[in-house]
Specification:
heterodimer, A: about 375 residues, mainly beta, Methylamine Dehydrogenase, Chain H, 4-stranded antiparallel beta sheet, about 40% strand, globular, B: about 100 residues, alpha+beta, 5-stranded mixed beta sheet, about 20% helix, about 20% strand
Chain lengths: ~375, ~100
């Protein structure tokens, strides 16, 4: 029987939640790395027992941990993230040039074909890769050296490369997103990149339709349709059907189109999920009601999913890496909150239950479906 | 022999209990002690000194013999009592809330 493992990164440690395919009873393991911020954990699609974790601290900097036994035991691997060459400057909040400085790894994306190969998204925005299971990391500087790089500016959370999406049909094609530079695509394994922000409109920047400068929060893709991308931007839910060359808005009837997460049903490429957040000034659900919105039409027509979710006095946030799906026959959907709950639905979003609560603030949620 | 006291999180990371005792030849400076510490516990590399600047991480302090050595040159000799192992060299996490 298949089983499910949910990897939860929090502000104060990592947790591994395990269940059989019924997804009714959950075993909670953790905290691993207690007291450290775990921005992201993700397992290899090639070897589910191989899991990588980004562990960081304001005191002690960045570590990368690796497990070879499904999260039972861990060992630190290399934590040296060095920018290639003279990194130069980007723009600071006040518009002045500011040196590129490594701060932390926001996202780890294991290769689809090799358990030892992992891509890492860093703050200040840069794209790193290991091909030896984390024993050494190299920057692929083509992204940071894109001509627009010296004009990138941080968002409120820092200038972070937070999203990495691999194209399963083309190993050379990778999508990334940076706050607040926007989305970029490489078609040559990360050597060169092009901004893919046409169609985005952001009233918070001087030119709302600029080539770069957009605060993209998250991009999701269904593996069967790698040319179709869904994006939760700062404001606006967007869709592209040509690999990001052009986007159009699909916010439709959402009560607010601000938010962080977006994900796609494991078996229905036109079924997508978001968690609307009231506004960029008020990072909590509208009216204190935690609602997931599902569109079965690839956007525009949305329905509120509320069964099992708090519908009063709920003022948590759901951060950009904190939603994932499993690939069991009936797709499971999971998300974590800054209030420390991880909610799960074993029926594609119709019904929800908190499978753990009162954890530290949840930063990331990933799910492994284990045959 | 030099005695080094690590903060809780670095003891957990290095899987050590209590003080670390480093056999030591040569001039006992802060740089040399931390170099020796990192050589014995490679997982500590980058957690005490920033990889890029080589400097002490801002939220860590270095104490010994009731003195704050944090802003001294890393190549200055450590106090004789530290070099002889009579007093420990303390790596301390700055107090901070949250």
């Amino acid at each position: 029987m298949s089983s499910v493992r949910v990897l939860v990164g929090t502000r104060k440690g990592a947790f591994v939640l395990s269940s059989d395919g019924k997804r009714q009873k959950w075993d909670v393991s953790g905290p691993h790395f207690a007291g450290w911020e775990i921005y992201h954990m993700k397992g290899s699609p090639v070897d589910p027992n191989r899991i990588y974790a980004s562990q960081s601290s304001g005191w002690f900097g960045q570590l990368i941990q690796r497990s070879d036994d499904g999260g039972k035991t861990w060992a630190p691997v290399d934590n040296k993230f060095v920018y290639e060459g003279n990194p130069g400057t980007h723009l600071w909040y006040d518009g002045t040039p500011h040196p590129w400085e490594f701060k932390r790894v926001w996202h780890l994306e294991p290769s689809l074909s090799d358990a030892d190969t992992v891509f890492a998204g860093a703050e200040d925005a840069a794209f790193f890769k290991t091909t030896d299971g984390g024993k050494s990391w190299q920057e692929l500087p083509g992204l940071r050296q894109h001509g627009s790089g010296k004009f990138w500016q941080p968002g409120a959370g820092g200038m972070c490369l937070h999203t990495i999406v691999l194209d399963p049909s083309d190993p050379q094609r990778i999508y990334i997103a940076i706050s607040a530079a926007g989305a970029f695509r490489t078609d040559d394994s990360g050597q060169t990149w092009k901004p893919i922000n046409r169609g985005l409109k952001s009233d918070q920047i001087p030119n709302p339709e600029a080539e770069v400068g957009h605060c993209v929060h998250r991009i999701a893709m269904h593996p069967s349709r790698p040319g179709t991308l869904f994006m939760q931007k700062h404001w606006d839910v967007m869709r592209s059907d040509n690999a990001g060359d052009q986007w159009h808005e699909v916010s439709g009837n959402l009560p607010t189109d601000f938010g962080f997460v977006i994900d796609v049903h494991a078996h229905e490429p036109e079924t997508i999920y978001v968690v609307p957040i009231k506004s960029d000034a008020e990072h909590f659900p509208l009216d204190g009601k935690l609602q997931v919105f599902r569109s079965r039409t690839g956007g525009n027509q949305w329905e509120a999913l509320t069964r099992g979710l708090p519908q009063a006095n709920c003022y948590v946030n759901v951060l950009r890496d904190a939603m994932a799906v499993d690939s069991l026959d009936e797709c499971g959907v999971y998300f974590g909150t800054t209030g420390g709950q991880v909610y799960a639905s074993a029926d594609a979003g119709d019904n929800w239950t908190a499978i753990v609560r009162d954890l530290p603030a949840v930063v990331s949620v990933e799910v492994q479906t284990i045959a | 022999m030099i005695r080094v006291v690590l903060p809780f999180h670095l003891r957990m990371l290095a899987k050590v209990e209590g003080e670390v005792r480093l056999d030591f030849d040569g001039a006992a400076t802060q740089r040399a002690v931390i170099d020796a510490l990192e050589a014995r516990y490679p997982m500590l590399s980058g957690t005490i000194r920033d990889y890029h600047t080589g400097r002490r991480r801002p939220f860590l302090r270095f104490f010994a013999c009731e003195e704050d050595l944090s802003n001294q040159s890393p190549d200055e000799p450590l106090p004789a009592a530290v070099a002889s192992g009579d007093e420990p060299y303390l790596i301390v996490g700055a107090l901070a809330g949250g």
